[in-house]
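Quick note —
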Amino acid sequence: MADFTLTAAPILGGIDKAIAGNRILERDDLALVSIATPLGGDGGLAQALKSGWSLDVPDPTRSTTNGDARAIRTSPDQMLLVFPHATPDAEPHVQKMLNGAGYTTDQTDSWVVLEISGPDTMAALERLCPLDLATFDADSTGRTVMEHMGALIVKLGKDDFLLMSASSSAGSFLHAVETSYTYVT
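Predicted structure written out below.
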């Protein structure tokens, strides 16, 4: 039998595109692991998250960050841990760090993550997103739809956002973001 070596490839080919001083960057360097809180395990999970990543459990519609790691509240008793991790073993790594304090599922291949930034970012997002992003401060999050595709949005800074959507519609999601930028520049 022949030996094959499979190499992971970015969902969107690792796009890093400039549009009139704005940037669209695929963040294929990030692992995404969902963490659910066991019944009665709030304190243990909070302690494990603090011990493992120096992160607090985020409040609803918020994220917490420490360096490169970010915890995003996605629903009651659930969050998404986002952090740089090059190998395909993110979930076992998180489970080991949590030491059983949370239930984990690897979501890395289920989502495409775009970081968008630049002076026209708010205008581009206003065309795509029904949320009032003017009320968002850094670390605010929201679940929404963009061009009929489910999305999770995180405000990183003044004109800097993480956008996440299903990897199965990544091409359409990227097209919607690119098109919105071209209409406002």
